[in-house]
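Internal ticket #5521
Category: modeling
Description: The requester needs a full-assembly model to guide mutagenesis choices. All entity lines are attached below as received. Residue total reported by intake: 253.
Assigned to: D.W.
Attached entities:
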Amino acid sequence: MIAVARNQEQTPSLLPERVPRHIGIIMDGNGRWAKARGLPRAEGHRQGTENLRRIIKACVEFGVEILTIYAFSTENWRRPPLEVRLLLNILETVIDRELQELHDNGVQIRHIGRTEKLAPALLRKIHDACEYTKDNRRLILNVAFNYGGRDEIIHAVREIVKAGVPADDITEDMLNQYMYTSGLPDPDLIIRTSGEIRASNFLIWQAAYAEYYFTPTYWPDFDREQLLEALWEYSRRTRRFGKTDEQVKPGEG
Ligand code: IPE
Ligand code: IPE
Ligand code: MG
């Protein structure tokens, strides 16, 4: 059963059951990519969005079911106002330009993150894009925009308190239901580009048992082959979830 031939000649193949169902990507390094080329940061962000289109296609090709991308964090408001404006504009532009193609490729768009602080016009655009694509089933694309993991947990706790949930009813399952990712499986694999080895407040609740993959490549250069490399490495890892090797690999050894 060959899902993906990693490299036709020298490699074995990825088995479908070893392809992560849910991948999160911290798309980092746009600014440094641009700086290394003597270009403005804006050009790095532009190339970053171009790359996103390629990676979404590759995820569809490899059979990934859910892709969560970190596009703008609750901490990114601390950047210089001009850059913040640019990043907010990019989302609008990307929706305008890519929506139809994403729809045609069976991508369902969802937003995770705070809606407060986002301009009404942008919110409407996000809402319309989610509505337009809501019946698509090939890939769920969660766009983490104005997203922070701690902020998400605070939001969930507030909603739980508002709903008057008794303390004894609070379980992991119920907290899951109050997260922005409610109804979706936890991420199996989180990729971060640009050489930074940290979570930066991304899916900190959901990633409790995710596998992490870090690469020095800046986001605009992280291509299909490198995604395949990450999937390949993921497929060789043993996920124990607290158990022993013997428990999770019955029949081996
Ligand atoms: C990632 O690239 C994009 C966002 C955080 C929105 P950066 O803009 O963080 O690029 P670097 O880390 O400065 O190189
Ligand atoms: C994380 O990248 C946020 C996104 C990719 C949207 P940052 O570049 O903001 O992260 P830090 O501040 O270096 O940790
Ligand atoms: Mg960065």
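Resolution: model delivered.
Comment from assignee: The chain has a mean pLDDT of 94.
Ticket closed.
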